[in-house]
Amino acid sequence: MPLSNNNARGESPRLQELPAELAKSLEREKEQAKGADSQQKPFEWRPASDSPVTSTHGTPMTRSVRGSIAHRESGSRDDGTSTPSPITSNVYINTGSGIHTVETTPESSHFMGDTPPRVSSSSTDAGGPRSLYKKKKNPTTLDIPGLTKSKSSPNGLISQKDQGSKLVIIMVGIPATGKSFITKKLSRYLNYSMYHCRVFNVGNTRRRYARDHNLGEQDSGFFDPNDPQATHLRDQWALDTLDELLKYLLEGDGSVAIFDATNTTRERRHTVMDRIRARSSQLKVLFLESICTDRGLVDKNIQLKLFGPDYKGRDPTESLQDFKQRLENYDSVYEPMDDEEGYPYIKMINVGTKLISYQIKGFLASLTLYYLLNFNLRDRQIWITRSAECEDNLTGKIGGNSDITARGDKYARALARFIEDQRCSFDESLARQCVEGEDEFPPSFFVWTSMLRRAEQTAQYFDDTEYPLKQMKMLDEINAGDVDGLTFAEFRKQFPKDYDERQKSKLLYRYPGSGGESYMDVSNRLRSVITEIERLEDNILLVTHHVVARILLGYFMNLSLEVVTNLDVPLHTVYCLEPRAQGVSWSLYEYIEEQDTFVKVPKSELHVTKVKEMCLVHNERHYSLVPTAPSSSMASNETHDSSDSSLTSHEPSSNRTPACGENTDIDELNQRLTKLQS
């Protein structure tokens, strides 16, 4: 901050740019220095190994700038030496990576001498004079799986040794403010982005300890801040959970870890920070405070808590009274985050209605903030379908940009009618939920397609005034590069090594040639689409393709990308996803060509597999029943990757056409083509 009276005294303009405290310190020393040359400038030349300027003594020089060494006004003489100042003090230097202290003494205050002032760090340059800059290990600034690579991170994942790029997110807030809901959604997004993330919940540690030590139920009295014994136990559980978190980041493959606890007091937050810094000085830390002032949201969260593990099987009325008392105990000692604590933080008010951020630095922290900006709790539907049958489906070609067939056109017409019926039903259900007197407008309905002809033609019968249409390049099918336009038999014959590599790892395999993509590449280009879907409060239909549909379904179902490659997305079917507080529910509708209508397929008739979800919360296991390719088609997977078959186990193969852009069993494909042509 510049001093207001510098110009009046004729001070150097550079002195005006100094921070106020440093400028005042220099002025005091100037007044105390006796016999100093009144014309000497407050900034002089100093040695620097990286300067292109050379002094009269042959030593490289550079001129100090704002935040660099401000030499003492100590009586410089014309012979290049200076009279030592009797003052010993510290000057702060901005080296670009932080503020470091330079200790100036009468022995070290020779401005034009060969030895610069002593820096508090004792690092030296190899074979050269002592460096003014404190050396430190710089963390990788940007790692994106599939898009970046380096010596420490050949696959784009954050290296285990690169602690400076890893992030600890510490939750803050009283119960029933949506912390667990936020952490699970955030963890799902980061895991989808291939930044291994896990939530460490202190409540789980408490319940596990109580079960192992027969502690019994912990009612609201256990959370009384005036009970020293209970407080000690809760603090110990918090630190034990934090130790597990740090082990996951420092010794495991974790990139982000979320500490899910109340952390409502400054003392607790200070203790947590001390524990982290005792283990690592490089880990990035971000506090995420959830504040809920909407009474309706709080009541909904309380109702969800009554079905949680703390109140399972107990009387609802008694549970409600007990939980409200627990809230009062936490609220009595609650100290919201503020700037004075000095920690980076994000305040999330009413689960995304308002966000306040402070000192957000680093790629992962910025990515977290960006995702939280696109949060909403509206009831809505997300529909996903593949493009209708096209000419390349019939010939079994990979990729391509062909037109839809007559059968595909029939599906496109039926799809527009079906979505209209489903939209009306959903709007009616929302109207019944509205409180009397509220003026609630029904949500809009968007239709997004890829830029391939078969996708645009599938959506051609939607009225653009009622269903705003948009084409997106991000929704295009995986680019097959040099393989585009070939059948899988031709692919296997012309590119045998590539074919074998794809069989080993479909997730990481990238098609050869210009523009060839892998599942990871498609996942990265879909990230902006997913963020926009999370932001929308309206219904949406995505008309896309096999690989894209798999990845989108995998994200909302919380599946790892390895599992996604086996998801079954049959031709002429529509998935409906409904985000809820507990997760995302899904259902599958199938087009029955003979009846020219859609029917909801019971999951009992689908070929479903019990799949372990990504481990969002430490020591918690969750499973999903997801549609996968039939086991009959998987039997030949050693020679042919048939998981991309468009068949399902509840319908004869003669009623299906092969997937466009992805392969099936070759013999089965030929049989089906013969039946279709006949």
TrEMBL record:
<feature type="compositionally biased region" description="Polar residues">
    <location>
        <begin position="51"/>
        <end position="62"/>
    </location>
</feature>
<dbReference type="InterPro" id="IPR013079">
    <property type="entry name" value="6Phosfructo_kin"/>
</dbReference>
<dbReference type="InterPro" id="IPR013078">
    <property type="entry name" value="His_Pase_superF_clade-1"/>
</dbReference>
<feature type="region of interest" description="Disordered">
    <location>
        <begin position="627"/>
        <end position="666"/>
    </location>
</feature>
<dbReference type="Pfam" id="PF01591">
    <property type="entry name" value="6PF2K"/>
</dbReference>
<feature type="compositionally biased region" description="Basic and acidic residues">
    <location>
        <begin position="24"/>
        <end position="34"/>
    </location>
</feature>
<dbReference type="GO" id="GO:0005524">
    <property type="term" value="F:ATP binding"/>
</dbReference>
<feature type="compositionally biased region" description="Basic and acidic residues">
    <location>
        <begin position="70"/>
        <end position="80"/>
    </location>
</feature>
<feature type="compositionally biased region" description="Polar residues">
    <location>
        <begin position="81"/>
        <end position="108"/>
    </location>
</feature>
<dbReference type="GO" id="GO:0003873">
    <property type="term" value="F:6-phosphofructo-2-kinase activity"/>
</dbReference>
<feature type="compositionally biased region" description="Polar residues">
    <location>
        <begin position="149"/>
        <end position="159"/>
    </location>
</feature>
<feature type="domain" description="6-phosphofructo-2-kinase">
    <location>
        <begin position="158"/>
        <end position="378"/>
    </location>
</feature>
<protein>
    <recommendedName>
        <fullName>6-phosphofructo-2-kinase domain-containing protein</fullName>
    </recommendedName>
</protein>
<dbReference type="Pfam" id="PF00300">
    <property type="entry name" value="His_Phos_1"/>
</dbReference>
<dbReference type="GO" id="GO:0005829">
    <property type="term" value="C:cytosol"/>
</dbReference>
<keyword id="KW-0547">Nucleotide-binding</keyword>
<feature type="compositionally biased region" description="Low complexity">
    <location>
        <begin position="644"/>
        <end position="654"/>
    </location>
</feature>
<dbReference type="InterPro" id="IPR003094">
    <property type="entry name" value="6Pfruct_kin"/>
</dbReference>
<feature type="region of interest" description="Disordered">
    <location>
        <begin position="1"/>
        <end position="159"/>
    </location>
</feature>
<dbReference type="InterPro" id="IPR027417">
    <property type="entry name" value="P-loop_NTPase"/>
</dbReference>
<dbReference type="GO" id="GO:0006000">
    <property type="term" value="P:fructose metabolic process"/>
</dbReference>
<dbReference type="InterPro" id="IPR029033">
    <property type="entry name" value="His_PPase_superfam"/>
</dbReference>
<dbReference type="GO" id="GO:0006003">
    <property type="term" value="P:fructose 2,6-bisphosphate metabolic process"/>
</dbReference>
<keyword id="KW-0067">ATP-binding</keyword>
